[in-house]
């Protein structure tokens, strides 16, 4: 059986192989490989490679660095179908959705191709008499990227194109559930001409993460995953002197106002609730129906949900399986709890007939009505194809619900009232807001990130905040001496 290894110095690195974990195809339940779980020794070897490569990469011209990133973009664009198939085989999402993920990651690669422009500093001539001042931004050093299972290509690409183009070296620690995409991207970097040691992959679990968080050679950490781990990563990394951006979990609400186009809203709820089996940090999991539209809206969502084809992501399916059996069972247990708590199960995914392997990790789309805020199906991030409907009387009540959440990743409002939408964008305490757009993922040149327990740190991913995160500012004050200069002056420098 294939062992999925680490990657350093542009080649596969077996490491000590003291421990491995199974990788499964969620559509069949079959174990398809074993991923190496790094020992501390393995982690240090990979980090050392990134540290050794940093000085030369930092000093490689921007023109050369950008041309390699551009080459990576060309290869990715030409061969993204291969990457999508790898994602589907280990994650389970349907191939078209996997392709969408790769394309959204590619947008960040394209953004990073413009790094020479993004890194331009400022210059002030004659700030004081015969004194010029300039600002420059420099790479921070070797950086660690720790990514979740749900976007094995896109989430790493939120960070590494920018980090690399800006002159840093990278250690990517992908999720142990779907580790092959990272190796495929590493091979692509090598083909694009990236020097050895600039992009490295460390496979593993907590041992690997802890070494990244504490090893002094690593200067910055970009993390994406669940809130408790994000909190831990932020606390540990910053305590070890690193800058850290740690993106956490979510529970995204969509508010539907009484004047909304209910057909548009129903389409959006199905797409955003059940796409990628709800395993998206921007999925809508709480639908807040305002006023007397709830019965009609729920009926429209049910009608659409009943048409969805659940099955193997490589076949003609709308939605694939969940990532692991453990996760599937956990999500199903939330549906059980909602039922016991008195909510109405309108569409029950527990009884799904899927077009896939008998041992696949199947759970169909589930629509639950009359959910109240004390139920675990509402309070917890479930991360599965479960859409809860909460009925409220007014906009104010709906807003209060969203703003009371511990999470603040994404949200959306559906309305034809511009004034209400404008009020919502102003009042809601969430980092990414959609107006008649259910999954408002920002473009690469804006920054991605939530508020509250959805992000720890002060930098969002990609866009100019990403460039800022992966660089340090320096200000240079310059005077070229001429014969008239001279004299001692111990006072604080003043301008003249
Ligand atoms: P996770 O927190 O279990 O794992 C994320 C990463 O942390 C993985 O690489 C994993 O190996 C590592 N990890 C797990 N346990 C650890 C521990 N105890 N110590 C150190 N490292 C550990 O998350 P997941 O299940 O892979 O991904 C789903 C979660 O990610 C959801 O909560 C989802 O909302 C979140 N997510 C958030 C965003 C965002 O932008 N905010 C995007 C995607 C996913």
Automatic annotation (TrEMBL):
Claim: Oxidoreductase is one of the keywords in the record: yes
SUPFAM superfamilies with a match to the protein in the record: ALDH-like
Known EC number: 1.2.1.27
Molecular function GO labels: methylmalonate-semialdehyde dehydrogenase (acylating, NAD) activity
Organism domain of life: Bacteria
Entry-linked Gene3D superfamilies: Aldehyde Dehydrogenase, Chain A, domain 1 (3.40.605.10), Aldehyde Dehydrogenase, Chain A, domain 2 (3.40.309.10)
Top EC class, one word: oxidoreductase
GO biological process, one term: L-valine catabolic process
Domain Aldehyde dehydrogenase residues, every copy: 19-476
InterPro entries the UniProt entry points to: Ald_DH/histidinol_DH (IPR016161), Ald_DH_C (IPR016163), Ald_DH_CS_CYS (IPR016160), Ald_DH_N (IPR016162), Aldehyde_DH_dom (IPR015590), MeMal-semiAld_DH (IPR010061)
Record's keyword terms, sorted: NAD, Oxidoreductase
Keyword Repeat: no
Protein name, UniProt field: methylmalonate-semialdehyde dehydrogenase (CoA acylating)
